[in-house]
Amino acid sequence: MTRKLRPAARILLLDEADRVLLFRFDPDDRPPFWCTPGGAVDPGESYPEAARRELREETGLDLDCGPEVLQRHAEFITIEGVPVSADERYFLVRAPHDAVDTAGHTELEQRVMTRFHWFTRADLAAATEPYFPEDLPAILDALERPQ
Predict the structure, then answer these.
(1) What domain range is 44 assigned to?
(2) The whole model's pTM is what?
(3) CATH code of 20's domain
(4) Which of 6, 29, 32, 100 could make a disulfide contact with 86, Cβ separation 3.0–4.6 Å?
């Protein structure tokens, strides 16, 4: 299967209580899953620019996303049914509050991103639906350790 290259910016958004924001995707062709805010980098856009745009569009927060904290490669099929090989860059962002404004969601996002939730580490450990990245608790723990 030929996969399309997909650069993407993902946000590890933590609120004041150290909970991480995930959106629930409810696609027509597979079981529901949860995912961090973020998405594809637009042509001519840098990863940091894409991170800020995606954060604003998906949460209503217009914040500097700071430096990239993690790079990963993932292969999956997008909601639109396109097989991709994704170069994902992650940005750790601290939200000033836990209010989320989804008014900037596209028509597709409105249809498939059915809800959001701020997850504690205990919530992630007890989750009954898959979330991505699958090792999110370990990633967050590693980022919070002094370097």
Answers:
(1) 4-144
(2) 0.94
(3) 3.90.79.10
(4) 6
